[in-house]
Structure formats: structure tokens, C-alpha cells
């Protein structure tokens, strides 16, 4: 890891595994432990770019905090798609916002910074459809 040799036991302890749990078969691990094992495997490979799609889905709090720490220490580019606004505030240093009508803008900071800088979410497609159904229509008689 990071150009240094490490014993697997000590490495997995960084991912919140006790020595007893390290010796368990993978099928005996909980969902949170399985997710931490996947993260441990991911970070054994050298990389300068990570692409993560909704990485916080199905993570327990311990694993979420661990992922935040790992990404803050990651020395590379992170391309992240997430609905988790707090996670984005904690991890990202800039955002690309898809603002509708094919417009993409870069903002410094996380989600809260984007809002402060005037960013707005476009209306969801189904919101416009619902509005059209409820608005009365005029017909020529």
C-alpha cells in the first residue's frame, strides 16, 4: 500500500476489522463488513483517478466515516456522483453541476458552497408533468 509492504492483518485493522473477524470466511461477514472489505480491496490498487457512483448507498456510519477519511487522504482525482449532500460537503473541493438545458458549470467547494454561489437544482422531470396534468386546459367550443 502506497509503495510500502504491510501485513494483511494490520491493513484490515485500518478498515475496522478485528483479528477475529479477519479470520472469518467472507460469506460470514455482515453487510457493513463486506462493504469495508470491498473498500480495502479498492485501495490496495495504485490509482490517480477514482470514479464512484453513489458510494454512500447501503453504508453503515462507521464505513461512511472510513470512506470519507480514505477519500480525503486520496492523492488523485475523484469523480463522484452522489445524492448525499453532507458527504459531498465533507469530501469534495469542487463540483460540476448539471444545471439543465445542457449547461454544466464548475463550482469551488461542496454542495452547500454551490447553493451559496447561486446554484439551484432544476425541477425534476416528473414535476413538470404533474403540473401539466393539474393545469386546466382551454378548448375552442
Automatic annotation (TrEMBL):
Gene3D superfamilies linked to this entry: P-loop containing nucleotide triphosphate hydrolases
Gene Ontology MF term list: ATP binding; ATP hydrolysis activity
InterPro entries: ABC_transporter-like_ATP-bd, ABCF_ATPase, P-loop_NTPase
Source species, domain of life: Bacteria
Domain ABC transporter: 7-57
Pfam (any one): ABC_tran
Protein name (record): ABC transporter domain-containing protein
Native organism taxonomy: Bacteria, Pseudomonadati, Pseudomonadota, Gammaproteobacteria, Oceanospirillales
